[in-house]
Write a structure and sequence with these properties.
Length: 1013
Amino acid sequence: MAGGTAVLAMALVAPLASAALTGSSRPGATPLPDRVTDTSQLPSGWRQSDDRVVTYDGDGTGLHVLVADAAKAYKWRTAATLSEPGTDTDQWIGQSCVTASGDRAVVVYAPRQVINDQLGFQQGAFAAVVDLVDGTVTKLPELVSLAYFNPGCGDGEQAVLSRPQGEGTQLLTVDARRASVTREQTVPGQVTSAVPFGTGIAAATGDSVVSVDRQGDVHTLARTTEGTPFRLVPDAHSGLAYQVPAAGKKVEVRRVTDAGSDRLLGSGALGALAVHGTGGHVFVTGKGAQEDTPGSVLPKSWPQDWRVLDVPAASEVSTTGDLALTRVSNGGEAAGGDTVTVVAADGAAQPVGINALATDTGAAFDFRVKPEAPRQSQGAEQSPALGRSADDQSTGITTNSVAEDPSAALHTNSVAEDPSAALHTNSVESPSAAMRLDSADDDSPEHTTTDPDRACAVTRNDPELQALQPSPAMVEWATDLAVQGKLDVRRRSGWNGTDLSSYTPQGMFPPVALEGGGRVPAQIMLGVLTQESNLVQATSRAAAGESGNFIQGGYYGNGGSVHTVDWSAADCGYGIGQVTSGMARSDTTYTAEQQKAITVDYAANIAASVQILQDKWNQLYKQGILANGGDPRYLENWWFALWAYNSGFNQPDASDAAAPWGLGWFNNPANGLYPPDRKMFLSSGYDDARTPNLWTYPERVLGWAAYSQQKTDPTTGTTGPAFTVGTWPTGKAPDAQPPHDAFCDPAANECDTSKPRKVEGSSQPEGPCQRDDFKCWWHEASTWTDCTATCGTEVLAYEATDPEPKATSPRPASCASTLPANALIVDDVPNTVKFRVGSTNPCAGEKNWTSRGTLSFTFGSAQQNGATVYPSKIDFHQLGSGFGGHFWFTHTRVPTYTDSVVTGTWTPDRSIDGWARVLVHLPDHEANTGQATYRIDLGDGTVVEKTISQDTGGKNTWVSLDSYEFHGTPTVSLSSDTADGTGDDSIAWDALAFEPLPAEPSDATTASPSPQK
């Protein structure tokens, strides 16, 4: 895999702007309200209405479940914020449904990066029940699918969650009142859009709507003549609304009863109509569908409890249908939409803008809400789905994944063409190989910040191996030069404080000539980088121009758990391109120097990522798998290479000519995991970024290439395009998109969306993919458009002679000491660590001190799978700022979480006899706990405690811990366990100093020994 971001060079069906976010950004504009202020625009009787609207939006702090009630003039509040501790992500995504009472929501949520991995997409999302009245959160002990139809609610207090299992689908019935899973059933084949219906479940499979009774028996309710039904919504009278694609790019709205009576109620253009519903109410949305959609047919009357709403089809509808949300965005989603009027502080939730319409009057409302969950600790607690043993999970979660080949799906960017190599180059060969301790890390894992027992090639938390965070301009520059084969900027020895020798990115990772000639278009690579990493090389906690740990996917193999380390399950994706192949510790594809460069240098990482994508093109070209004739200058012609880049390429079996081979089913646009009426990613607006799981990987990359990501300048708060987009002859990128059934051919891959058939002897119901093993793999050339008339081409912003742009961190280091000259400063890293930003030393000529001691750590451990592991390191981080250009931090937890506790101890290199003041340097970010308790050993075994707040209001500053009389070599310790620790507040270790004093000072503290820990 690999990752990236995007500038609008021309109007390409530009995404709609959000008034809720842009309106108040004008000078002198009135701030947007969190409720309807002119209640005359609400329907009469609104004070007695039980209408409730529920939506969600995600940022780096979690997925926010937002609620507004008509009786309170739709005043917005946060019901819950859902996240998992220790998960490093820039955005949480998901979806929800509301039960009939309107008092509960069932929510599916996951970090954004999960959608880049097939197994993660299908079985890696968390689930929870949220009480919309009091904010109680109950997380469910199951991992489920992120498919667009998950979860599904009915006309009562139950919901259905689903996930693939082997050659079937597991359906989990949730009783929202009890907040528990009450039934698990596995049915054959790929089943989608499952919802409670009657006493059982209704779902779609193949060309049919089916019911599943309590015994797991499947019965057909209705059979269509076209594609697979989707968006099933139960009504209050034993009926079920659903949609189904029809000929001529149309969609039908139909109703089937529990007795099997099925009838057509309306039709329109695909994407122009949608069905929604809550608690037996069914709403058909589609603004102006009857008048504006040629050939549309809508009835004059609808079944009881059905309403047609003249609002955009994709609107989110309230429980009684009185309010429709047309836009929800914080402007800073990984897709990156509109102008953010306020830049949230570190660790703070982004304000959310909401646009709405009153469905009866058409009145428009713009809201703004700041997410503040009433029970934040519940939403941030680890899901019980991560606390299950491997044996437990194997029975319900990980058995026989639907992946074409699980290892191929998990490790996608192998450059090897040998089938076995292609499927396994990124995985750890065996637990024993992964856990060798024969690396350069000689220290005990208990006390070193690095991971001597790791499975991946380059360790985290090595202060001499920090990744420099690039700016969007730096990323675009490197990409533009790399695709031209001109990324030859010289990295001098010691670049960014490492021990790397001098190199050039494409000298280390030379470009691969494309079969057939040509080169990779810049916008394709930028789209890949956007999708993989949101255009960041380092952790998202690092600003552009700041260094930190590399951004990584599954380094600890913990599956999202902050309490689990499983080196045998590690996914070694590194940096902006999430380069995985060659980055396992046991893999010798790359040299140690190359692995380090991929880790720390965004330009080297991009060079390696381009090399991987070039290899994927060549693999497919040699097999004749070409798009639209295979001219590489056209963006859409990279569709198959992108497909392989993400979910692998399954080589032909030399011993079995009849065996399936090619590009996997997961990223086939016809897969029922994706809604049939979706438009091109981002073509309808940046709201698409809230739910990127509705599109395949190639669709998302082409969307980025056409519409660009947006990035916010942290110093000004203004947002703009991150890179230059491509150009299309018609000015409309959607014109060149392939139809969703373009890669379905019964003769080629046993797939047919218009005429599903049943495989002889198969237990799987009819469906687009007619194989029990889902190996409807594509290996044919395909032409779906005339690229000279419709396809996109690249636009370069940088030529080969342009210099590398620079980024200035908004969080500059504090270089010089302002303490008295006799102060003994003990820095958090040794004097041998070099503070560099690229090739520059920001502290040159300013540093006036030398560290006089050491900071050592003790990391909390646990026994897992017969080995001692250190889960406390999962949420342990470094940043290249603070005093001297480096500090460490984690997040506070209660003392009972012993496996999460980190203790740092400063020790000077000499004894102190007499009075001295103790001062601690606090960084200007990632330090905000109010319960930092420092334990000061006076050198004779006497220990005193001093508790302070580490929140300095965004300033680098020294804070006094008072003065003490010392009798020997002192130590000062700080642990991350606090009485109020929930995993939200950060706690930092930077420099500490002892200032010798001539006599007892006014701030002297008399030693009162504290209990030893």
